Amino acid sequence: MRLKKGPWDGAQPRTHVLAVLRDHGVRITEIEADLYELLDCDGDPLVLSIPNPVLSSTIEYLYRRFGHSHQFEITDLVKRH
Fold first, then answer.
1. Whole-angstrom Cα distance, residue 74 to residue 1?
2. Which residues pair with 28 in a beta bridge?
């Protein structure tokens, strides 16, 4: 069995990723389709394109940016089947 590799591996539904961020206190405003403003607990804004599905590289970035300050693990951003 061959393991998949590439940018689509680990892609997650955008609704799940945004729900996890909201549940951990990240304020999210949709600016336009696929473009969001995210505010951390200090009120620092980040404008980011978040397409659906959210690729693993974006999930990693969101975790590095918000995980520690909002106290969640990268595995929280992965939907359990």
1. 26
2. 38
Distances (CA, A) of 77 to 1, 2, 15, 32, 53: 26, 25, 11, 22, 12
Whole-model pTM above 0.90?
Answer: no
Q: Which of 80, 62, 68, 53 is nearest to 21 (CA)?
A: 62
Q: How far apart are CA 10 and CA 12, in angstroms?
A: 6
Q: Is there a contact between 50 and 36 (Cβ–Cβ < 8 Å)? A: yes
Residue-level pLDDT, tens digit, the chain, 81 residues: 455 566 667 789 999 999 999 999 999 999 999 999 999 988 999 999 999 999 999 999 999 999 988 999 989 988 876
